[in-house]
Design the sequence.
């Protein structure tokens, strides 16, 4: 006999199905990203209506059918209502959800990805730091969780750790002095990352997730970080996220 299981997770996407149903993708702690049907969720007064909206975090009672999962009920722990009502926040949250979707799959538990997404939406809602910085922090940390982080703590060539500014190269960073000996490096990645920007990146990689969204940077550092992330993701994440089209650069 098949049983109903309770999974903790966040709704990433929801789309209408048939006349009254909804198909949702939920990033769960226990089973990774699953796709499930919520029968009658779009009927007026349905108990499934609220808990199957995007960015709802909670415990879901899921029945494992022969070919698909079915949502039988949900206990909402946190609903990010402010996000749904703000266009910019919705765009960012949709991008974060799409990236989480990209890095997770079914039957691969995803507690780190789920916690990161949760803390990120919380930071969006709290509005204490700019959305553009939230995006950088999220991208950086998600790349680390997915095992694609760079060597950012020492020079790739001479291994010194006390450099103030560095060049970005394949796999990590190269100090200014080593870069001088490699003309092609400065040519292909013609930018320096200053000490503050580098420290910010190191902080993002090492701090507990609960403290990720607790710092601010100057516009200058913000610019360096944005430049760095575009270059980094351009090389290591060859995927076009549809939701990015809605984010202003
Ligand atoms: Zn060096």
Sequence:
């Amino acid at each position: 006999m098949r049983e109903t299981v309770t999974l903790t997770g966040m709704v990433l996407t929801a789309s209408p199905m048939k006349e009254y149903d909804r198909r949702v993708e939920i990033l769960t702690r226990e089973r990774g990203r699953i796709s499930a049907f919520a029968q009658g969720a779009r009927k007026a007064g349905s108990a499934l209506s609220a808990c199957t909206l995007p960015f709802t975090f909670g415990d879901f009672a899921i029945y494992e059918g022969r070919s698909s999962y079915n949502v039988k009920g949900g206990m909402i722990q946190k609903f990010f209502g402010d996000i749904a009502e703000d266009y910019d926040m919705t765009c960012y949250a949709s991008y974060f959800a799409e990236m989480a979707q990209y890095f997770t799959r079914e039957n691969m538990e995803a507690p780190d990805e789920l916690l990161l997404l949760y803390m990120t939406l919380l930071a969006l809602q709290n509005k204490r730091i700019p959305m553009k910085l939230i995006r950088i922090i999220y991208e950086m940390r998600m790349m680390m969780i997915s095992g694609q982080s760079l060597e950012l703590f020492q020079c790739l060539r001479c291994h010194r750790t006390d450099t103030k500014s560095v060049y970005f190269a394949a796999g990590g960073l190269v100090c200014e002095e080593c870069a001088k000996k490699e003309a092609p490096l400065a040519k292909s990645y013609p930018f320096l990352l200053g000490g503050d920007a580098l420290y910010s990146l190191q902080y993002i990689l090492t701090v507990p997730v609960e403290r990720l969204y607790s710092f601010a940077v100057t516009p200058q550092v913000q610019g360096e970080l944005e430049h760095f992330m575009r270059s980094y993701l351009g090389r290591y994440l060859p995927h076009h996220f549809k939701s990015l089209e809605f984010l202003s650069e």
Remarks:
- The chain is about 35% helix and 25% strand.
- The longest helix spans residues 219-236.
- The chain has two domains: 1-79, 82-249.
- The longest strand covers residues 4-17.
